[in-house]
Design a protein that fits this description.
The structure holds two protein chains of two kinds.
Chain A: E1 4-6, E2 9-13, E3 18-23, E4 30-36, E5 43-48, E6 54-57, E7 60-65, E8 70-75, E9 84-92, E10 95-100, E11 104-109
Parallel strand pairs in A: 2-11
Antiparallel strand pairs in A: 1-3, 3-8, 4-5, 4-9, 6-7, 7-8, 9-10, 9-11
Chain B: E1 5-7, E2 10-13, E3 19-24, E4 31-37, E5 44-50, E6 65-69, E7 75-79, E8 88-95, E9 103-104, E10 108-112
Parallel strand pairs in B: 2-10
Antiparallel strand pairs in B: 1-3, 3-7, 4-5, 4-8, 6-7, 8-9, 8-10
The chains are: A mainly beta, B mainly beta.
Chain lengths: 110, 113
């Protein structure tokens, strides 16, 4: 039940916005978002537990559409430090493990 | 205290040998996870420990893989008779309890020749 992430990659100029989507075919309990920079461990960004709830981390926010079983991550006014691979991890009811998507590689250029 | 630590950071072994990877979670974290990440790929769940409950081993790819955890502390992941397809970065993560944010260690890069 690996979630599907899109797009696979995105290239931005500083200040531009981007949206990364994460879709599941199974009912979700929560969605986690992590960012991994090259050669480093993934770092937690946020968890979304309820449908429609939006959370934020700096200028990075996310929403969770329970009806569509989908979460979207919004990168607003991107900075060079936003470059990395973004993974969504999905949790299902009664199941404490995360299933991670294949990742979306974000490159922010000056 | 300190974050999640893993050792060794790099391991090169010959096909057919056994390897043991170690993870020290953050003190007080009852949940511990092992993941495998092949080059350029996503994170593949291997096993999950929660307190004294029976571990969730549903992600272990074969019976050559096993893991143990002593109480709520150190965990070891053992791969027997290593194969070249076992080459990957093995990441350990811990969290306060299940469903919480996971803190990842730096990983062990395993290369099987």
């Amino acid at each position: 039940q690996q979630p599907v992430q899109s797009p696979q990659a995105v290239i931005l100029r500083e200040g531009e916005d981007a949206v990364i989507n994460c879709s599941s075919s199974k009912a979700l309990y929560s969605v986690h978002w992590y960012r991994q920079k090259h050669g480093e461990a993934p770092v937690f960004l946020m968890i979304l537990l309820k449908g429609g709830e939006q959370k934020g981390h700096d200028k990075i926010s996310a929403s969770f559409n329970e009806k569509k079983q989908q979460s979207s991550l919004y990168l607003t006014a991107s900075q060079l430090s936003y470059s990395g691979t973004y993974f969504c991890g999905t949790e299902y009811y009664g199941d404490y493990k995360l299933s991670f998507g294949a990742g979306t590689t974000v490159t922010v250029r000056a | 205290g300190a974050g999640v630590s893993q050792s060794p950071s790099n391991k090169v072994t010959e096909k057919g040998k056994d390897v043991e990877l170690r993870c020290d979670p953050i003190s007080g974290h009852t949940a511990l996870y092992w993941y495998r990440q092949r080059l350029g790929q996503g994170l593949e769940f291997l096993i999950y420990f929660q307190g004294n409950s029976a571990p969730d081993k549903s992600g272990l790819p074969s019976d050559r893989f096993s893991a143990e955890r002593t109480g709520e502390s150190v965990s070891t992941l053992t791969i027997q008779r290593t194969q070249q397809e076992d080459s990957a970065v093995y990441l350990c993560a811990s969290s306060l309890i299940g469903y919480n944010e996971q803190f990842f260690g730096p990983g062990t890069r395993l290369t099987v020749l």
